[in-house]
Amino acid sequence: MPASPSKTVAPIPPALPRPRSPPKYPENCGTRRLQLDAQILNREILFLEEELQSLEDAQPVSICCKEVDEFVRTNADPFIPQKRKHKSCSFLRSLRLRLCCSLSWLCFSSPRSPRLKKRRKCACACDRSNDCRSFLNGYSGFKCPTKCNTRRLTCPRCSCGCVWYCCPSCTGCCCAKPCCSSQCLCS
Amino acid sequence: MSVAELKERHVTATETVNALRERLTQRRQLLLDTDVSTYARNHGKTAISFSPTDLVCCRTLQGHTGKVYSLDWTQERNRIVSASQDGRFIVWNALTSQKTHATKLPCAYVMTCAFSRSGQSVACGGLDSACSIFNLNSQVDRDGNIPPSRVLTGHKGYVSCCQFVPDQEFHLITSSGDQTCGLWDVTTGQRISVFGGEFPSGHTSDVLSVSVNTSNSNMFVSGSCDATARVWDTRIASRPVRTYYGHTGDVNTVKFFPDGQRFGTGSDDGTCRLFDMKTGHQLQIYSQQYGENDDIPCVKSIAFSISGRLLFAGYSNGDCYVWDTLLAEVVLNLGSLQNSHEGTISCLGLSSDGSALCTGSYDKKLKVSYHFLSSKT
């Protein structure tokens, strides 16, 4: 009797290729970063211990406050004028001097300036539209269109630094006047 | 050492740091027996009184076509330099408002400017990560601009602030977005020292401001986005002298108190603070009350009056508070006065004799103010 033929079993296909896992390289980046962080933390510990040590002998805050108070008390302050007269600071002296000179030029050189009576006071340098504390006496025609009697020192119509005065008859920018020597950047 | 061991060491070191910080906080609390305002009140100090018309705006400097970011006064001759978003710096005569110099910068994104001690040179820095030095006596080019005489390169981030060392014409301190400060020799263009960085213990975020101690020019203070201020000795770049904690937001501005022993800070947390340099104590907080839903304005710039009694602080909402430093009260808000700025007060500074205050703003203007009564002889 012939042997019964054995059943043919389909061959098992070879396993599909699979990518290999990457080789386990040493984690230089991670290790290096951790080492650096450890160094930084160790330094921080050292500094904190030094600071703790320094606080052992540190004076309390009240002593520091006393020093601040003494310093403030013993130093004059232009923004907190004393009641008695004192010398004005150089910046403000220069400013007042310049105001007087500028106003003198306006009085005597400008072809548009009205005839002026005797000047009694310099204008303040305010830029305000409310009542100012200084004013010019006897300057008829120099009243500002707003409530303030002061002279304006910068031309309100442009960005140049020329001197300009509040006069209803003076229209437009005064850049063309000889007084203005700075370059106007507004154009 | 293995990664696991390193991680374990890291955790242990972090716990040690936190424990030490806690001990430091407790030790400081024991020494915090008062603050400046409580001390002043207990010793009979009365508040400064200002009326709205006491501080006079005598000059409005117009000419920039962009936000003003920075300003500085000369030591003498009453000139001001300002730097703006329009990519220019302008030198003004503060008495006449006239512009003496106006120069386009190589990099339009300028953030800071400073005068040298003599007033002959101007330093400007910004997003180009460099600081350009201009000699005001140089010949202008055919476009009317002064070419830089030196460009200080080396920072790896924007230059946020610069200041010349007061008694040295050629030394400049810079602060940068690369977390470091630098000391430079402007004649050679070389960086003499780097303060901070990854290995030396320094700021851990962008440095936004520096102020050099006028009483001891070897010392300067820096303020950073890491919410700390640090005092440095220019002779020891490896580590700060001390680190000052307290703020809860970026420290945008720092300025030494006139006595050189204290300094003030201004921050995104809306407060100004006064610190003692030697002990590290926080002496006073200058803060307004805000509602829970209010946007808290950031402090952008500060300056002390010459006696230290007043602290001028410019805020992001256009306010410019004048604080009584001893009583921690606001005595005036320059931002609420007529003819005040119409935007953020980005910078401010006092003249060398302390008699005039210049403020710069996002409204493209600068304003010079003084106390009306102090002009009288």
UniProtKB/TrEMBL annotation, chain A:
It comes from Platanthera zijinensis. Residues 34-92 form the G protein gamma domain. Residues 11-25 have a biased composition (Pro residues). Residues 1-28 are annotated as: Disordered. InterPro entries: G-protein_gamma-like_dom, GG3-like. This is G protein gamma domain-containing protein. Keywords: Coiled coil. SMART domains: G_gamma (SM01224). Residues 31-58 form a coiled coil. PANTHER family: GUANINE NUCLEOTIDE-BINDING PROTEIN SUBUNIT GAMMA 3.
UniProtKB/TrEMBL annotation, chain B:
CDD domains: WD40. WD repeats lie at residues 61-102, 152-194, 200-235, 244-285. It comes from the Eukaryota. GO terms for cellular component: plasma membrane. This is Guanine nucleotide-binding protein subunit beta. The keyword Zinc-finger does not apply. GO terms for biological process: signal transduction. PANTHER family: GUANINE NUCLEOTIDE-BINDING PROTEIN BETA G PROTEIN BETA. The keyword Repeat applies. Gene3D superfamilies: YVTN repeat-like/Quinoprotein amine dehydrogenase (2.130.10.10). Belongs to the WD repeat G protein beta family. Pfam families: WD40_Gbeta (PF25391). Keywords: Repeat, Transducer, WD repeat. It comes from Platanthera zijinensis.
